[in-house]
Amino acid sequence: MKARQTILQRLTAFGAVMVVSCFVIVSTAGATVINWGIHDNVNIAGGYNIWSGSSSSEVLSRSNFSASAGSAGAAAWNGFATDGTTYWGIHDNVNVAGGYNIWSGNNFSEVLSRSNFSASAGSAGAAAWNGFATDGTTYWGIHDNVNIAGGYNIWSGSSFSEVLSRSNFSASAGSAGATAWNGFATDGTTYWGIHDNVNIAGGYNIWSGSSFSEVLSRTNFSASAGSAGATAWVGFAAASEPIPEPGTFMLLGMGLLGLVGFIHFRRPLRQVTCGSSGATAASGSCTVG
Fold first, then answer.
1. Which residues, in sequence order, are bridge partners of residue 151?
2. φ, ψ for residue 186 (rounded to 5)?
3. At what angle do helices 246-266 and 2-28 cross, to 10 degrees?
4. What is the largest CA-CA distance in the chain?
5. Which has the closest alpha carbon to 171: 216, 138, 135, 218?
6. What is the pLDDT of residues 33-90, one digit of tens each?
7. What does the DSSP 8-state code read for residue 71?
8. In a 3-state reduction of DSSP, which class is residue 127?
């Protein structure tokens, strides 16, 4: 009986450790950053092309086409964002001065189709939004600062509605020059901004940092990339997505085997009771309990 309890304890500990290890590895190892960019489609009125890649440079090169989607109406998109699960787009509300509509979906194609309305929010003033981003917990929006030439205000919140209301000021930052920001993104660790490159026709500079304030200061150059054509980028987004590795599946299998063993050995043993000390199961005078 004591040996059986020892086996039971070891299997329980083994199964628990393996399953916990598996989920830790899934959440940390094998993670990849997926980037998206939404670009005007000059061949379709109110249409957009979605480009993806493993980096902002790849997105800007427009070498990996993802999908096309349409968005009727003359209202403009101000930015896009995703936490890897839900996708958002912020769109002008032509019926409300300084108002915006937030559209969400399971992908950017659904967002661009404007089939899933999320919320409306207002932002007084003539200053423009340059982009939005989220890491799944905090939401940001970068907005022109009309009081400072080449300056920007960063607004944050627990939702894009709160960001658009501009009730939670985060920081101010400057970016000298007349070139424009095309969008911002974060995977929760690194922050990026895509900025016009005035020295290269259809070219862009990518700036990164540990915060959007650092990105806006343009102190940490990341890369340059080109995107031929006169069409414009509407916004960018990035998200970190965990990818299970073969070793993760092996750990999961081992953990499940340990749990199966735990369930098996946990069942009570069937006891054999005999009528007398000398009786045996073969004699027919024993019962199985």
1. 145, 174
2. -150, 150
3. 150
4. 102
5. 216
6. 899 999 998 888 889 999 999 999 999 999 999 999 987 666 789 999 999 999 999 9
7. -
8. coil
Q: What angle do CA 159, 162, 168 make, to 5 degrees?
A: 115
Query: Stretch 264-281: mean pLDDT, rounded?
Result: 52
What is the per-residue pLDDT across 191-217, written as a single tens digit (0 to 9) for each? 999 999 888 888 999 999 999 999 999
Nearest to 227 by CA among 250, 205, 256, 209: 205
Element counts in the chain: helices (H) and strands (E):
6, 18
The answer to whether residues 190 and 168 touch, using CB atoms and an 8 Å cutoff, is no
Nearest to 183 by CA among 242, 140, 121: 140
Distance, in Å, from the CA atom of 261 to the CA atom of 237, rounded to the nearest integer, reads 45
Q: Which two tokens stand for residue 147?
A: 């009081």
* Choice between 23 and 41, residue whose per-residue pLDDT is larger: 41
43 vs 36: CA distance, rounded Å: 20
CB 58 within 8 A of CB 45: no
- Say what the pTM is: 0.75
pLDDT of residue 24: 38
Q: Is 242 left (phi over 0), alpha (psi -120 to 50) or beta?
A: beta
287 beta partners: 273
pLDDT at 157: 97
How many of the other CB atoms lie within 10 Å of CB of 279?
Answer: 14
- Which DSSP helix (H) or strand (E) runs through 147? none
Three-class secondary structure of residue 232 per DSSP:
coil
Pairing mode, strands 139-145 and 151-157: antiparallel
- The number of angstroms, rounded, from the C-alpha of 55 to the middle of its chain's C-alpha atoms is 14
The residues with which 234 forms a beta bridge, in sequence order, are none
Computed from CA positions of residues 253, 84, 44, 231, in that sequence, does the dihedral angle turn out positive or negative?
negative
Q: How far apart are CA 287 and CA 241, in angstroms?
A: 59
